[in-house]
Amino acid sequence: MASDPRRQALVDHLRAVVVEGGDYNRLIVSHGDVYLQFIGSRGGDAIDCEAVTNRFLPAAAQLTPKREQELTTRGFTSRRKRRNLVRRVPCADADALPAIADETLELLARAYGVDADAQLRFDLLLGDAEPTANVELLRAMKKLARLRDMPSRQAVYRGLLASELLLVLDPDSDDAPHVVERLQGLPVYAAFTDWDALRLWEPRGWPYRVIAGHQLFPLADDQRIASLMINPRGDIGGELLMNELRGLAAAARRRRD
After folding, report:
1. Rounded average pLDDT over 129-152
2. pTM reported for the whole predicted model
3. What letters, b where the CB count within 10 A reaches 16 and e where it falls short, cover 183-209?
4. Within 10 A of 242 (CB to CB), how many other CB atoms are there?
5. Range of 169's domain?
6. Which residue from 142, 200, 243, 257 puts its CA 20 to 30 A from 53's CA?
7. Using CA of residue 195, residue 197, residue 203, residue 207, what is the dihedral sign?
């Protein structure tokens, strides 16, 4: 395996995860729909390795029980706020990286059936963790899910207007919102309260911009979207329909004026 040209490329990218960037560096190693994702920090002594699961794989790439066992026997387990299987990999110094690269290539072959000569894609994203949190909004959303009464709903609306959300963008455009689906021919957008919530929807992440709620709702109203999903696939979320968006937009405009 030492002669595999992909090995050195993988070692070099893994080294960047632990010696460059910031406190939240990511490396996505992929072949088609299959991927492993490494998350670490500059100066860190360990890396999280995430292995894509059937939830995010098309039918043709689904893991058989035997192949999934290749992951679990190597210590990959489920974790809270993760949709893929995860394993913590010690990485005290650069000497550990070749062994991590070797096991990665072996996993791609044995668990996912990636050919030994298949070209791999390396996406390296260096930087710090997204700080947006929206703690009060999430608290209000949990209360609404429990009580389902009008005072709780109004508290969520107030929280949304005061929030900053991660609005996912069309990856093929500079700043246009991503249309996650269509409802009666009209676009549906998605926004997230925090980075962890976004990764429950797409573990590899997605282009986004942070936008204040009082700016987002007039935008949604002007663009006549059918609905706005909040934290789709998340642990706590919901969907704002057109009439709710119109009301929130009106409240935002009154606040602005």
Report:
1. 97
2. 0.93
3. eeeebbbbbbbbbbbbbbbebbbbebe
4. 17
5. 135-256
6. 142
7. negative
